[in-house]
Design brief:
elongated; about 80 residues; mainly alpha
Length: about 80
């Protein structure tokens, strides 16, 4: 995982495109983390399963940080520019 998000800014995409792209990786991390946690709680009491659950949840939280180069920062910037329609 890279410490920043890089988007092609050569074209002027609508803000909703940037918000949807910004949600992609964090949403996948959240789903994987929640799924692995569910597997762990369902009975697969493996340290590896718990580690993967926690790691993906940490990636989700980190990715959604409102830092300009992270997904959360990009989404925040484009949500401020959002024009309905």
């Amino acid at each position: 995982t890279m410490a920043y998000s890089s988007y092609d800014e050569s074209q002027d995409y609508p803000s909703r495109v940037h918000v949807i792209r910004g949600l992609g990786e964090p949403a996948a991390n959240l789903l994987l983390g929640a799924g692995m946690l569910g597997v762990y709680l369902a009975g697969a009491r493996s340290h590896v399963v718990l580690y993967l659950a926690i790691l993906n949840l940490i990636f989700f939280v980190t990715g959604m940080a409102p830092i300009p180069t992270m997904h959360g920062g990009i989404m925040l910037r484009h949500l401020k520019q959002w024009k309905p329609g």
